[in-house]
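Cross-check.
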Amino acid sequence: MSRIHIIHENAEWTAPLLRELDAVGAPYREWHLASGAIELSGTPLPGIYYSRMSASSHTRGHRYAPELTGCFLDWLHSRGAWVVNPRAALDLEISKVAQYAALSRHGITTPRTVAAAGKDALVSAAKTLSGAFITKHNRGGKGLGVRLFEDVAALEALVRSGEYELSVDGVTLVQEYIQAPTPHITRVEFIGRRLLYAVRVDTSEGFELCPAQSCAPEDAFCPAGQGATGAKFEVIENFHHPLVAKYQRFMSAEQVDVAAFEFIVDAAGRPYTYDINTNTNYNPGAEARAGVSGMRVLAEFLVSELARWRHSSSRSHAA
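Predicted model, tokenized:
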């Protein structure tokens, strides 16, 4: 039996999608890749595969889940499997440097950023920037490692104290701080490379902007859990922006099917894109107020992809 095969490492984040797949009667199978083995001479099970692997998996004790998923996707591609958010999307998910390089190729403006490995290099990198700056993990997710510094001395003091946590992949970014007129950023959601909606996100309480409902109480990096205000995420009605078309062209060229892009606008009205999330979650409060459901649209998209796979498969067998 052909199915929608869902690759992930976080059951809580995946549960809302499974509920929607159940609601539409879609057949599916989960592949929880926190650990496991791959028979490289084997044949994939029939159906389509959808990768929801997260860059923050190591914060849940799944340190090598992205690497295992990369192996799994490589194997699927070698067998000609139909993959939604294939290996190219995973590579973007787990490296902000890869994101910025790809965005630059498509003429999408990003903040000035320096990548550094090692604490001394991190401090040296900060000295090349003027004014306030942000540090963040190259392999992030959930705003990991995002801190705002007014000057290099503040960063150096924290680094020397031994309390600064480096990125799990060893690469930390130092990035110019974009001062917005109001404490907000915009997150633009796409499913099947089509605009779903844009969300206005309040950043007044920090930069950790995971919109998922199911955040562990001890997870200080996910503000959508306890303590988050209901208006932190608001769906923007009738959203129009020149970046939408650019993001869609980016997704087509970079083999990304489902993603969210985040951008900030400075006082002069210039937009800077600073994050791509290919393991997108949707804020239920904001969606309820707007009368939309990202997970329902995602489930319907996956069902349509499975139908396309079945049609393609039947034609191949007939030939």
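The two ends are 21 Å apart (CA to CA). Residues 183 and 203 are 5 Å apart (CA to CA). Passed to J.P. for a second look.
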